[in-house]
Amino acid sequence: MAMPDENGYETEGTVARAPKRGSTLEGRIRVFMERRGFHAVTNRVVLDHEFDVWAEDRDGRVIVAECKEYYQSGPATPAQIRNFFGKVYDVEKNYGTDIYMSLFVCISGFTDAARSLSERLGIMSLDLGALEMLESSEEDLAPRYLPLEDSAVLELRKESERLREELNRRQLVRRLSERIEEYRRALMTRTIPSFLVPSSIGRTFWYSKSHEIPIVGIDGTFRDYVVASFPHIDGMYFSKRRFLGEKRTVVPAISFKMEEGVIYPIDDVLPTSDLSLQSAPRLSELAGLPIYTLDQEEIGTAVDFLLSFRMDRPLVESVVVQAASDLRDRLAEATFTLPGERLSLKESKSSAGETVSLVAHVRMSEQTLGNWVNSRERDVESGGRRDTKGR
Length: 391
What we know:
- By secondary structure, the chain is an alpha+beta fold.
- The chain has four domains: about 25-145, Trna Endonuclease, Chain: A, domain 1; about 150-190; about 205-275, SH3 type barrels (Roll), CATH 2.30.30; about 285-305 and about 315-385, PRC-barrel domain (SH3 type barrels, Roll).
- It is about 30% helix and about 30% strand.
- It has eight helices and 17 strands.
- Helix 2 links the parallel strand 3 and strand 4 (about 100-105).
- The longest helix has about 40 residues, at about 150-190.
- The chain is rod-shaped.
- The N and C termini lie far apart (about 155 Å).
């Protein structure tokens, strides 16, 4: 009986059997090759590629093997198959060696994708079961060629991939064509030529310029803004000519939004007219009204309003005030602005009927008020002296 060699295998002439526990898989494959007439070595380096087993026979046929003695880390993956194929391909093309057969041996098996890839690349994949069957048989080592039905499957696979790529290309062409059409339509319908400037591009504008703001999606002509709960804008006042006259409606302002300087209805169908807003104050009626402080001092008149559609509910953000004559001489500018939230409407009744005024929730500073009173007294005294001289 022959003695086992350094790898735990018995030499040629003995019955083939599994290696002793603890021996390497590379040694097991080397012995397997030698029993079939190959001269095999382990860990040979060719062109900086290390092959676990390199075997040659008398006819010059070369068999290389990659050995993965995994027990717990899982089956071999497609990435490992591709890496091994790259080494074989490089040696064949650049070292001049014709690789007769390539083996990939993994004790823990192969994923389905890895096994399929090895078949397509002409690599024989051996798990533990296949290796033991091959060791116990007298079958000669030879490349495994795909049967006709497998070749047909590969051809069908190629055709399927070609058709899928063509389908993807046509879908991409369709999507790009649709996108180009959308861009072209947006340029024609949502933009203006470069030599023109829009009246507004934001969500705020001055009331004096409101006739320049387009309002789309309404059946009628815009007339005014209703401000029953100033500074909030409660409604939008429209009119429509009918056969028997003009119909006037007030649509709640929260039914509209503003984007890129254009006012749109939020929904396709506008709500019905709000009758409670028909007689409410409108912004046109507030222009020119005097503004009083809480201490009943007149500080000026309202001349313009900054309207905003930036919130959920449109409102008057600020009011431009033409300073009162007594205050104008003490200001650097004849006009100033007040935040809309600092103002409210005040309704009062008189012999002439109901009147509306604007109240600023501010007070005159003591210094300003004192200077104002002194100025008035000087004006009265000066007027009195002029009257005496005239008499």
